[in-house]
Amino acid sequence: MNKLDVLRKDIDLLDKEICELLLNRFAVVKEIGEVKKKEGLPVTNAGREALVLEKVRAAAVNVEEKNALESVYRAVIAASKKLEE
């Protein structure tokens, strides 16, 4: 197996872990949606979204990684809001 194949195998394993973590996150999101419905709260909470994005950006070292993580998390947040509805 050449170096590229080894690296791609690493990516495949990471992708599997990411999917498992996202599915766990989505399960919690659905529970949050139920609580919000019971309490009459809106799905969107701009303050919470800003806090999540701030934490995500802080996890990265450079601007490119910060922007990449923010882009990914904006998609995660959008998907999460649909699951909360």
SSE order and pairing:
Layout: H1 3-39, H2 46-59, H3 63-84
Describe the structure.
- The chain has 85 residues and is an all-alpha fold.
- It has one domain (3-84): Chorismate Mutase Domain, subunit A (Up-down Bundle).
- Helix content is 86%, strand content 0%.
- The longest helix is centred in the first third of the chain and has 37 residues, at 3-39.
- The protein is flat.
- The termini are far apart.
Structural class: mainly alpha
Q: Could you say what the CATH topology is called?
A: Chorismate Mutase Domain, subunit A
Radius of gyration based on Cα positions: 16 Å
Can you count the beta strands?
0
Count of the domains: 1
CATH superfamily: Chorismate mutase
Architecture, CATH level 2? Up-down Bundle
Which spans of ≥5 residues are poorly predicted at pLDDT below 50? Answer: none
Helical coverage, percent range:
over 70%
Shape: flat
| pLDDT averaged residue by residue | 98
CATH class: Mainly Alpha
Order of helices and strands: HHH
Distance between the termini: 46 Å
Sheet-strand content, in percent, reads: under 5%
Largest sheet: none
Count of alpha/pi helices: 3
